[in-house]
Write a structure and sequence with these properties.
This protein is of the alpha/beta class and 328 residues long. The protein has 13 helices and 5 strands. The protein starts with a helix and ends in a 19-residue tail after the last strand.
Length: 328
């Protein structure tokens, strides 16, 4: 609010100082909140683990591109989630391209705008870009991580389309008009269906946070116990327990070896929105071996089951000395 007031008063230098101080304060808060120095080794280990799993990712390159395009851009910007199919990938790419094309229009008439308009548009564009630089992968877990910037995205789309219509050629104006007529109904339909989704109490368990299960885990498991769950970061937010993600394994023996090396003590078996066959295979191996995995908690209403990992001799594996943290 202070920044906007200074810009409207044409005090750009004071606005720049306020923006710089706010950015420094926000950066300091993020550095403290994420404990960057202490967690640096954990992030490095996570990147190494991710790079090691790249061959598995490239086995289904089109499917993964489809997921990224749909989850990070279309579902986030337009609140629309399309099925994982070839036609849906094409539609996702077109919709995401339409949004970016519309927003890029704010730079079309950059030289004809006043300093105040340029400062506001640049600030909005910088804020949205910075937000996505931090939260892009989080939006693939749930689009709620992009909700704070949705009003700015809509405003940028409107501003960009206005600039395209005023400065573009006839063909460009027709293309932008078609883009507007396509994006506006999708915006409205996506927001309406999302409201219906959140007001529906009978939705599937994977669409609801497992609050009762998280409460049981907090009160019945050790604070240093390592879990396995498909969504380690959100699992830590709900339970305060670290977690490893799903393991890519060719058979059950390799899966057991990966569990022992990571020091996993519990496995939370539950359907998630991430449609990865590796996680489903991990859950099948856990549920099919009661001697190796002892069920200690069940909540059918949340489709959540906690299994304790046992060694072949019945002992509980000791915590690993170095493991990947699920802390965000």
């Amino acid at each position: 609010a202070v920044l906007v007031a200074l810009l409207l008063a044409r005090r750009q230098r004071s606005a720049g100082v306020v923006f710089g101080l706010a950015a420094a304060l926000a950066g300091s808060f993020l550095a403290r909140n994420y404990w960057l120095a202490r967690e640096a080794s954990g992030y490095v280990a996570a990147w190494v683990s991710g790079i090691a799993g790249l061959p598995h990712v490239y086995r289904d390159l089109l499917g993964n591109l489809n997921r990224v395009t749909n989850l990070i851009f279309v579902d986030t910007f337009l609140s629309v989630r399309l099925p994982y199919a070839r036609w849906a990938f094409v539609v996702s790419a077109l919709l995401a391209g339409g949004v970016f094309l519309a927003m890029a229009g704010i730079f079309k008439g950059w030289g004809r705008e006043s300093k105040t308009e340029r400062a506001l548009n640049a600030s909005m564009f910088l804020f949205v870009g910075t937000w996505y630089a931090v939260h892009a992968l989080w939006t693939s877990i749930h689009s709620r991580y992009a909700w704070p910037v949705l009003p700015l995205i809509v405003l940028l789309v409107v501003q960009g389309c206005r600039q395209w219509r005023q400065t573009g050629r006839r063909g460009t104006r027709v293309l932008v008009l078609a883009c507007e007529l396509t994006l506006l109904p999708v915006f409205l339909w996506g927001d309406f269906t999302r409201l219906l989704f959140f007001s529906d109490r009978s939705r599937q368990p994977e669409n609801r946070p497992p609050l009762e299960t998280a409460a049981w885990i907090r009160s019945h498991t050790p604070a240093d116990a390592l879990f396995q769950y498909a969504l380690p970061a959100s699992f830590y937010l709900f339970t305060g327990r670290s977690a490893a993600g799903f393991f890519y394994a060719s058979d059950e023996r390799e899966y057991d070896r990966l569990l022992r090396e990571a020091g996993v003590r519990y496995v939370l078996v539950r359907p998630v929105l991430i449609q990865d066959p590796a996680w489903q295979q991990n859950c099948n191996w856990v549920a099919s071996d009661p001697k190796r995995f002892r069920r200690v908690y069940a909540n059918p209403a949340e489709a959540a089951y906690v299994f304790e990992v046992r060694l072949p001799d019945g002992r509980v594996p000791a915590p690993a000395t170095s493991r990947q943290s699920g802390r965000p």
